[in-house]
Amino acid sequence: MHHIDVAVLIGRFQPFHQGHASLLTLALSNADKVIVVLGSAFCARSVRNPFTWQERAAMISASLSEADQARVSFIPVRDYYDDLRWANAVQNKLAQAIAGRGDAALQIALIGYVKDASSYYLQHFPQWQWIEAERVVATDATQIRQHLFAAEDIPATLDAVAAFLPLSVLRFIREWVLTPDYAGLRQEHWQLQKYQDVWKAAPYPPVFCTVDAVVKVADHILLVQRGGFPGKGLWALPGGFLDQQELLLQGAIRELIEETNLAVSEPELEKALVDVRVFDHPARSQRGRTITHAHFFDLPSTTLPGIVAADDAARAAWFPVSALCAMEEQFFDDHFHILDQFLQLISAGN
């Protein structure tokens, strides 16, 4: 038995399964208080992140006794697609959660196990004691999601995964598979599967190159609503895949015009280019390893140029910069975070 004041459990828990439950049990047996950090919070539902952080917190709480529920609290943390920023956010939110408990002298431990290379994030907290657990189940959340979205016989699939899920989680999922959210994500799963099947014969996993356009006019940003999967109905930056024979800037302007018919000439756009940044986090896109080059155009006009959605965009619209934070959970992939990099949308400490 370790003498620990606070045990920390970090994960996405998409969904919370018996392996996670064993980690939580270990944390509760070693500490007075347990804080569960729920990653991938404040984002749109996707095949990779089908459950909101509130749903995951409710699933986990429902798996505990009333006494243990009182000892467990939850911290939602967004995906910043920046490891250092993410680790700082976890530490800052934890400090806020334990404030007033004499935190300078508190013994804090991180509970977990190293599943594979994806567990590298556990190395970001060397200041905490590390307690490694044994892996107790043969499956993981990725495989469970794969079964759920690929299911042809949903009741039989639920029966097959039941042994890997706490009863509270199984009950939640039995109801959740009846919702429109599940139906939409199943369609997205199959579209992604078709997309990835095309590249199965490649000698090595492909790396895709895309371009995106951040267009600012009169404190407004131009966005498009995606017309197809993945991310159907979500808001995104105008952009797409780079053609073989074009430069990055040419591709960004081409995609911008194709999707929005922005009433601004190419020379005007080139003159208004103020920044270009690369976004290359391996998990930023579900389609595969995708590196994008975001081009920031800051046009001096005081009126919003005309736009008409076309190509694969269902809609095109101007949004005030002040409205973007409230839309965070409606953005495709990491596009909200691309905007944050240029516009500093997320305030310090959040």
- Measured on Cα atoms, how large is the radius of gyration? 22 Å
Give the overall shape, derived from the CA principal axes: globular
Indicate the proportion of strand residues.
Answer: 15-25%
For the record, the CATH class of the largest domain is Alpha Beta
Q: Structural class given helices, strands, pairing?
A: alpha/beta
CATH architecture of the largest domain: 3-Layer(aba) Sandwich
User: What helical percentage do the residues reach?
Assistant: 25-40%
> Average pLDDT value?
93
* Sheet with most strands: 7 strands, mixed
Helix count?
11
Number of strands: 12
Count of folded domains: 2
Keywords: Hydrolase, Nucleotidyltransferase, Transferase
Pfam family, one: NUDIX
Cofactor: Mg(2+)
Protein name: Bifunctional nicotinamide-nucleotide adenylyltransferase/Nudix hydroxylase
